[in-house]
Hints:
This protein is mostly helical. It has helices at about 1-10, 10-20, 25-45, 50-60, 65-70, 80-90, 95-120, 130-135, 140, 150-175, 175-185.
Amino acid sequence: MATATTAALPGADARTLVASYWTARRAAAVVVLVGFVVRFWVLASGWFSGTDHVLRIRAWESPFDLAYLSATGVPGSSPGMAAVQWPLSRLWPLDFTPLVLLLLALQCAVLLLVAVLVRQLWGDRWLGLVPLTIVAVAPVGLVAAAWWSVGLPTSLVQLATAGLLVAGVSWWRGGAAWGLLVAAAV
């Protein structure tokens, strides 16, 4: 009798259909997409800071040499950041689009690596969406998408950390030699 009542409900088939479609993996893909859209919105609706403009001007005016790479006049500047900044400033001196695209690409790579890590640790369980959602939309992570002089080093550290964890878990769980080599390189 209960089966006939359940089958007679009009939404029973719709609930079954939705439950069969929305797996944890598809929900994780939506969370990554939402995180990317949020970062894109932050970058598209904001402006870079004065420090970012100083870095651009210094890269545009300076030759690529040891003095330029080791200058410490701007807080947060590093030789690696100066090496990335110099060609971008030379090729596109008044355009911040390449910087925005680079930050978006780095942040997207971070989100994808964290999604891989979450899947390695929790599999296709719904519990894995909690840390993935925190990484994707937490305000503390959005700073990397809004401020070039902080975003580039932060994104690189996030990328290295996520890559190290993915490689380390791959080695630990499966004994994959590439995981140990990648973890050591990172």
